[in-house]
Design brief:
The chain is of the alpha+beta class. The chain has 2 domains: about 130 residues, no CATH class; about 120 residues, no CATH class. About 55% of the residues lie in helices and about 10% in strands. The chain has 10 helices and 6 strands, in the order E-H-H-H-H-H-E-E-E-H-H-E-E-H-H-H. The strands form 2 sheets. It has a 4-stranded antiparallel beta sheet with strand order 3-4-6-5. Strands 1-2 form a two-stranded antiparallel sheet. A hairpin with a 6-residue loop joins strand 5 and strand 6. The chain is rod-shaped. The protein starts with 10 loop residues before the first strand and ends in a 13-residue tail after the last helix. About 25% of the residues are buried.
Amino acid sequence: MRRSSVDGTPWSAPAVGPVRLADALGWASSALGAPMIATPRRFLRVIGVKDDGDALRWTVAVGVREHLATVNIVANRQRRIGMWSRVAGDTIDLALLAAAYRHKRRDGTRLLAAGALAGGLMALDLFTAVRLTRAERAHVRDGSGSAGVGAEHDTEGGATRVRTAVTVRRPQEDVRRAFREFEWSAFDPAALEASGEVRFVPAPGERGIEVHIDHEPAVRGGTVGAAAVKLLGQAPDQRIHDDLRRFKALLETGVVVGSESSPEGPSSARQIFHKRQPAQPVGGDG
């Protein structure tokens, strides 16, 4: 059942936390575990441990555990559980290295270096596990029910004032570049950036980039002129909202979805003047 905030607004699934870091550590588990299983004697010699029977068995067991961590984190996407299992495994590894230093030491310098590396990995694993756990307890608005615009426009301060936002699930560099290249119908993107009327803000939970626009374009006739163009579906806020939806669709999917009632994509003017009916995709069979 979907959770709701106090005002009835639906919330999304938990914020995802440091997913990329967790996945990188998951792959690192396999990279570390592979030589433990394939060439355990050589692995033990590299870290400065005597390669007797007990040491070999423990090394192979640890290598299998590392591969299971990869399966949990990367394949099953149980990142939080997988990272906490890595923390537990790191604790065991440090205990094994300490025991090896006392009883099976072959090269003390190498063994101390291996212990330092294991301690560093444990700190990173613990940091990632804590962040994932905290993210799971935090919820962010998912924007369901909207057509892509992440904030309602606000015309306070002027008849043509537009304050709105859209969330795009792409890296910030891609969003900035696409923003400059997109054919906006209501403003010049370069001028908007220069004036500080557009901002690019990381979305909560690493869910992309929020494009915030706070713009007050000039309209002939002031309040009366703004009302007139709004009736025609050509008010600045209507055009900006239409463009933002097209921009989001184009950047996320590579296409702007059209229909028989609005083949060019979202259009406020067509919604006003065309008879409302269930829209069919362009080129559909019925």
